[in-house]
Specification:
The protein is mainly α and about 130 residues long. It has one domain: Winged helix-like DNA-binding domain superfamily/Winged helix DNA-binding domain (Arc Repressor Mutant, subunit A, Orthogonal Bundle), CATH 1.10.10. Helix content is about 60%, strand content about 10%. Strands 1-3-2 form a three-stranded antiparallel sheet. β2 and β3 form a beta hairpin. It is globular. The termini are far apart.
Amino acid sequence: MTVSIEATRPSVLDGLLTEGVLSSACPSRVVLDHVTSKWGVLVLVALSDRTLRWGELRRLVEGISEKMLASTLRTLEADGLVLREATPSIPPRVDYSLTPLGHDLAAHLLPLMAWVVQHAEDMVARP
């Protein structure tokens, strides 16, 4: 009998199941909720390349309301993904950038976003 190496090697899914990520009590649910919200993903992608000010973010992430942008940035900052730097000046200047953890996450999100963009028209056009 031949056993393939693939069959004996634990899969990523096996590891995730061992960690209990499908359990409703898993803390990953909270992080997933923050990271994969529509606005959360778009803000993280917008910040993946450079530091942006509030107005730049608002213009770049079209359709986001001021309230939703503020809420999303607060959540991502509390999660340690976004850094908010306020400079005491007149008018006040606030810059937003990704933390090292945020950059690590963005490196995973960008290929996903590329896939979404590549397939969005076909998927939306389906009956």
